Every structure is written in C-alpha cells, then in structure tokens.
Amino acid sequence: MPVYQREAEASTRTGRLTPRSHRLSFCILVFIEADESPRNLNYSQVTVLLSTVDWNPHEICSIMPLARAFFRLHGYLQPISKTQAPLVSRLIRTQNEVKYWQYTAAPQSTSCHWQLQEECLELSYGGLVMHFDYVWLRDHCRSASCYNSKTNQRNLDTSHVELNICPTNTRVDDENLFLTWPDGHVTKYNLSWLAQNSYEGQKQSAMQPRIIWNSDIYANAKVSSANWDKFMTCDDELKKFLRNFLLYGIAFVEGVPPTVEATETVTQRVSLVRETMYGKMWNFTSDFSRGDTAYTKLALDRHTDTSYFQEPCGIQVFHCLKHEGTGGRTLLVDGFYSADQVLQKTPDNFELLARVPIKHEYIENVSDHRNHMIGIGPVLNVYPWNNEVYMIRYNNYDRAVINTIPHDVVKRWYVAHRELTTELRKPENELWVKLKPGKVLFIDNWRVMHGRESFTGLRQLCGCYLTRDDVLNIARSLGLQA
C-alpha cells in the first residue's frame, strides 16, 4: 500500500494527523468551506492553495494521490461522525498556526523536450508544454550586452531585432536552453525561468495569492490584528499585516490613539496618502458638508469608492474617533468571492461584466465644492491570460446613464449585474464590524466592498485613501508576492 494511503487511513482510524495528512486536510477543509468540490480539484487550484500552506517541496508531487485517498475515505460533505469530530475540530483550531509560504513548485519531471517550429520553439519541461516566439526569445536575452542585471533594465533596443529572426543553432543541457542567432550572439535561458515566465505558466498562476471569503471562512481563519506599537517599529509585524491584507483584502491595526494625526502616522507606515478633492486626511460627521451620502446618518449599501475616477483609489482607511449613539456597524463583502460565484455558475455573465465598459459619475455642487468626475470601465477587471479578477467597480449610487452598451446587449448586462448583486447581498457573504476608537481598518478598495448600517448620535470618522502601488511596493520589498 502506498505511503500516502497508509497515512490517510491512519489519520482516519486514529484521529491523529501525520504531518502530510494534516496539511492536506487543511487544504480540503478550505476548499469545502469555499464550496469547492474536491473531486474537481486541478493542479492550478492546488498550486494557488499551496501558497498558504507550509509544504515540503518533496511532498508536492504526492498531493494529488493523497487527496484522492482522503476523498475516497472521507467522502465529500458527509455528516461528521463522532470519531471524525476530533480530527475536524483540531483542523479548525490549528488553522491559525499555518504559515503563509510562497513556493514555486519544482517541476514534477526534469526531462526536457524541444522542437523548432516555423515561428516558435516548442518546449516541454516539468509537465508543461510551452511555446516561445523567436522574436520573444531574442528580445528577452539576459546576456550582459542585452540586459543590465544591476538596474534590471533592458539594454537591447527591440526595434533592432529582426521580426523574422530564427536561431541557427539550439541545444539544451540539464538546466539551460542555448540559442545561437544569425549574428553569432548566444542567448542562455534557465529552463525553470522559461517555465515561470511562459504564457502557459502564467495562465496557471495567480498574480497575487489570495483567499476569497464569506463571513464563515473569514471568521474561521481567525486573522489577527496588528498591534500599534509593534506595527510602527517592527518590520515582521508590518509584514504579517501586509500578508493578511493581500490574502483577505482587509486588515486591522489596534491600539492606535484616536486622533487624526495618529491615523495619518499609521497609514504612512504602509503607503503615501493619496490626496483627492476630499483632501488628504478627511475627518467628518453626518453634517452633509459634502455632496455625498456618506456624510449622512443613512445606511449605505455595499460599494467600492471613487468608481468615478479613471483609476479608483486602491486602499481606503477608516478610523472611528467617536460615536455617541447606536448602530453604525461597518459592512464588508469580498467582491472577488462573489465574482467567483458568478464565474462558477454562469460564465457568460462573468464574461459580459468583464467586457462591457460603463460609466460612473460624481457631480458635486455644495457650498464651495464644484466637482464633476467620470470614470469608465467594466464592473469586473480581469487579467485576460488567466481570468483573474484584479479590480471591481461596483457602486449603484454613482453609476451613470448606461449609454455605452448596444440595445441588444443591455438586457443581458442587467441580468449579469443582477446575478452579481444577488451574490453580493447574500447574508452569508456579509462581514459586520463595529469600528471603535483605536481600531483602524484598511480596505482593498479594488476588491472588498464596504457599507454601513444607519446610526444615531454623533459619529466622527476619519481616514484617507492610499496609493496602491506604494502598498504593493513595500509588500514586495518585504518578500511577499504582490
């Protein structure tokens, strides 16, 4: 009997988790919580999930057969028996102990096969069949004359590369591909680098590891908040905060002094403040001092902010400095989770929301404020090579007249938009948080929608927008994939 099957049966029989079966069981639990059928797991889904689990590289090749063993033994979504309960309970308790670890899986096989075709080189390596245009191979040469490794910038002028270029000689050793060009120049590529940077490789990879969530998934993850003192002085605390932010699209810092100045200080730890027509740091109550529903006591439905910008603000920060009254809880919804539900159930609706641009508009004529902003883009913004959503524009308050959609597509767009709205408004997808003085909330405004319930009394809120590029820059400088 294979070792993975022995471990699976041992875990089922004894209720004790072997190292490999523990980590695999965590993977299965996450997929079940996300309503993903384990029977439909594919390599790319497992690879994305592996980025959140501390796997030994040698275990990766055995994950699929080990998974199949668990599915045969446990079944799928069957009632938990008394003997299985301790096992599942331990899995839930230990979720918070799992480390986030980015790992690019080693190829399952190091054998390499290549073939020169008329316009491209076909390369089979690590179980992946890739195609590289000859112009691409010449353009991306990493030799000293073509690429400056100190500045990570190109030296080669692409316009000087012959568009019909072909190598005159090609050879492969255990780890590298060598190409000789008509002028005698030799290009050397590491095979793993080619696999990582091929279109086929990128199609199976996520640009940014994430855990899409509903309220139960987020609650069970037990994501911890950062501590103000450690956050301001310790890079490890900052890295932990950014890791949570990248994975879930929200993160908290607690213990912050309830002042505008302290709020600005904590935000500057991760990014530059993005100044808009609302100012740099905003501090407001329900006095309707600006022409926006946010400056009232009314409830606000889920939405993303600044959808009327050509580039919506990337990060939003909220800090409740004072509330003398009732209500006012903050609503958070993972838009990526809802978009994924649409993709799984009705791919045509997902495609329509990702393809058709619409307008959002903000017109303000209050006191001395005169603003007219228009932003244009689809509701779902996706990377075309892997269908990964990277931004959502969803704001029913600011959606402008729909005049960018042909009449024979309008009804289909409304149907698709209605399906997304239905997913966003499901109670199980809502996370309600009571903001209190000292607790600062960071929101990925390209992903997580926010709203609030109506409130009474004086409620003073401050916050700002942050430049998204700077947040991602700091995350990458700390070794995170962003």
Automatic annotation (TrEMBL):
GO terms for cellular component: mitochondrion. Residues 225-465 form the TauD/TfdA-like domain. SUPFAM superfamilies: Clavaminate synthase-like. It catalyses: N(6),N(6),N(6)-trimethyl-L-lysine + 2-oxoglutarate + O2 = (3S)-3-hydroxy-N(6),N(6),N(6)-trimethyl-L-lysine + succinate + CO2. Pfam families: GBBH-like_N, TauD. Keywords: Carnitine biosynthesis, Dioxygenase, Iron, Metal-binding, Oxidoreductase. Residues 117-194 form the Gamma-butyrobetaine hydroxylase-like N-terminal domain. The keyword Oxidoreductase applies. GO terms for molecular function: iron ion binding; trimethyllysine dioxygenase activity. It is an enzyme of class 1 (oxidoreductase). GO terms for biological process: carnitine biosynthetic process. Its EC number is 1.14.11.8. The keyword Repeat does not apply. Pathway: Amine and polyamine biosynthesis; carnitine biosynthesis. It comes from the Eukaryota. InterPro entries: AlphaKG_dependent_hydroxylases, GBBH-like_N, GBBH-like_N_sf, TauD-like_sf, TauD/TfdA-like, Trimethyllysine_dOase. Its cofactor is L-ascorbate; Fe(2+). CDD domains: CAS_like. Converts trimethyllysine (TML) into hydroxytrimethyllysine (HTML). NCBIfam families: carnitine_TMLD. PANTHER family: GAMMA-BUTYROBETAINE HYDROXYLASE-RELATED, TRIMETHYLLYSINE DIOXYGENASE, MITOCHONDRIAL. Belongs to the gamma-BBH/TMLD family. This is Trimethyllysine dioxygenase, mitochondrial. The gene is TMLHE.
